[in-house]
Description:
The structure is a homodimer.
Chain A lengths: L10 H12 L4 E4 L4 E4 L9 E8 L10 E2 L4 E7 L5 H11 L5 E6 L2 H13 L4 E6 L19 H13 L4 H13 L1 E7 L19 E4 L10 E4 L3 H16 L6 E8 L5 H17 L3 E8 L9 E9 L1 H8 L2 E3 L3 E2 L1
Parallel strand pairs in A: 3-5, 3-6, 6-7, 11-12
Antiparallel strand pairs in A: 1-2, 2-5, 4-14, 8-9, 8-13, 9-10, 11-13, 14-15
Helix pairs in contact in A: 2-3, 4-5, 6-7
Amino acid sequence: MKKFINTVDTLLDESLLGFSKAHTDIIQLNAQPHFVKRINPPKPGKVALISGGGSGHEPLHIGFVGSGMLDAACPGQIFTSPTPDQMLAAAQAVESGGGVLFIVKNYAGDVMNFEMASEMLDCPNATVLVNDDVSLPKTHSMGRRGVAGTLIVEKIVGAAAENGADLSTCKALGDRVNNATASMGVALSSCTVPALGKPTFEISDTEMEMGVGIHGERGRETVELTSATEIVEHLCSIIDDELKPKKDQSVLLHINGFGATPLMELYLVYDLAVQFWQKRGVTICRSLVGNYTTSLDMAGCSVTLSLLDEELLKLWDAPVHTAALHLG
Amino acid sequence: MKKFINTVDTLLDESLLGFSKAHTDIIQLNAQPHFVKRINPPKPGKVALISGGGSGHEPLHIGFVGSGMLDAACPGQIFTSPTPDQMLAAAQAVESGGGVLFIVKNYAGDVMNFEMASEMLDCPNATVLVNDDVSLPKTHSMGRRGVAGTLIVEKIVGAAAENGADLSTCKALGDRVNNATASMGVALSSCTVPALGKPTFEISDTEMEMGVGIHGERGRETVELTSATEIVEHLCSIIDDELKPKKDQSVLLHINGFGATPLMELYLVYDLAVQFWQKRGVTICRSLVGNYTTSLDMAGCSVTLSLLDEELLKLWDAPVHTAALHLG
């Protein structure tokens, strides 16, 4: 395993320390239990938005804490859910009278622990469950996974909360964005989880994993590596079948890198995805290209499409000031 | 070779198309010859800042075109200098009466071609040569290479030019920032140049390349992989010996990823570099952590330190609006 680390056990702590020192103008780290909260306190009465999940997906979620997005994020160990006491402590630290909205990616551990935190929390709270990964059927026993679409939910609901929307409005908005969002990913390599010390799976030089999540697991199927055009057509077709955007529908197109894929390739993928939907008369009015929801050092990427209306577009464009996303 | 591409020959064109479609609010792509220019025309009389170099280092330089930074960038083929006609066309497209300042990384091809463009250009112009890589001795036959410090020169001079500084002031400022900046990099893997189709060099699972540039070449020496603390101490020591920051000196600390190293590790490296200089009483007042000057899919990172005074700090903090850097 080749990584810049001291020990597997201290990696997360040391990394969080670095993150907190690099962004003292935006966030503050609570050491025990671990959570990151925004440095500018939210307005009294503002709904507090909290997300979290296993680490290894940086900048998700800690990089999205700040004005206009999350109030706090709870980082678990790598690919491991944070604990209910982290979530509870984070909620108590940022709750400002408007209640708490948890934004949770659909994984069994995350769901269970956020549910426990929700029950323990002594204030109005609700949860938005993100399950944008359309590589799995809707009927999958565990449900679909939450992947790169999560940041779109966080950004849009973050803007609404900052503008004073109340808890039920934020919850309904989050569900609406989630339902209007679909993602599909492909990997060219495994990632190496530090505690394991070797790649999670073996894959040959001519194969790729189609329909992957963000935890270094195998995809829906292992297939022959083909041209970027064919790969992107496949990813986009599955998303298109799911969301069925109509002609002239406005959309946000997000190309997300899993960590080890150069920006040059991500922009090429973006171009091909634009061509796919332009042929269908869909209007790509906003975009985001880069490594936002990563899977350690995995080579690969995902395509995410979100259907936008005027309200969602305005909320997407609202100012946001976080370590990893800065608009306006 | 596992990459999201169609053909090696069309990779750059397709990627630039995607980049230009994703950032229509900031930049515009000129197809023939290739250059990227800012969409908001500079004020009349403003010094035009132009950089460029081989592709494969994204977001450098195209991601730094926009208000407050570069007026144009010329992308060459991967790891290959752009041609003088690209530079000339870019200069003619953005020159606004204040002359042209070329910001050039010190590589033989880049230097030669920018010199030719400078001679062909029919307006006042000057060049800042960036050579911040302290892994090579000052006396090296080709001189030291320009690496991640380049973006610091581009940002600071960009702010001065936007504020109305004239050509000689911008040139002197660029030289001053370059002289106050030092970088040192380490790689855990080679990168794969698409035209070659395989890693540039072989490296064992227990070795690293110390003192690497950004073109996938071997480093100053191949050494045993060790702890992050030891690696960072080594990188920082060489920089510290070069710049000799005094106690209470204000500095900008930039940790740059080469492409395939997770943000989690880069923040850990940042924390260790902070500790190194804090022990020496140096004041780290600004920082930048992320993949900014990459080497395709190389795993590795570099540490860059820039000595700041009040003027440089103010220019670093000035608003900038580009695809890859957004402040204020």
